[in-house]
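Next up, sample data:
>
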Amino acid sequence: MTDKKDDVYGDHISHKFNDELMDLKSEFLKMGGMVESQVERAIHALVENDGHLADEVRAGDKKVDRMEMDIDEEATLIIARRQPTARDLRLVISVIKMVADLERVGDEAKKIAKFAIKLSEEGQAPRGYVEVRHIGDHVLSMLRDALDAFARLDSEQALRIMKEDKRVDEEYQAATRSLLTFMMEDTRNISRCMSVMWVLRALERVGDHACNIAENVIFMVKGEDVRHTPVEEAEKVVGR
């Protein structure tokens, strides 16, 4: 649930300041939706052997980069004009950090699209697509939940995302072990299976960035930095 006692963003005497903060949140969520779509479409391009869709994903990365620069500029102007303090400053600083994570998610989508194009030209790999779909669904769910936690200032949901990151790591390791075993048994498919392994690595990184966003949500709401902190310690922070 949303931390109501801490949910004071956008509650200022200056309506203009309220509008600026709301616009910043809105643009961040818009970019989040964009990169989520990029990852989803890149996965679809890979598993459906759709090189044309993969090309569209790669081209869309420029728009993601542009959005990052625009949001950074907007946040910097708010700091310069309003000199925000306490919770407002945490919001603006967190957005700057989180938008960098979103841009990197866009980069991972671009990598997946690159391998989708490569495999559409070489022929699909004989293994790994079930794992790509499974881990892809998992990290996309984490990303959606992280954006939702940001929108609702929900530190408890953010904590749940941090816990999910370990599961994604375990799924990634199991998938790569399975592919490595297959490649050792049939060396003819090493090149194509390696492409799928790079895709799995990109998806694992998407999960890492979703976790980073969740950590920043906790910082926004609770005022404590839980990066590089065991989940057990983060639980104590959220429970306060």
In short: Confidence is low (pLDDT under 50) at residues 4-8. DSSP finds seven helices and no strands in the chain. The radius of gyration is 19 Å. The longest helix spans residues 86-122.
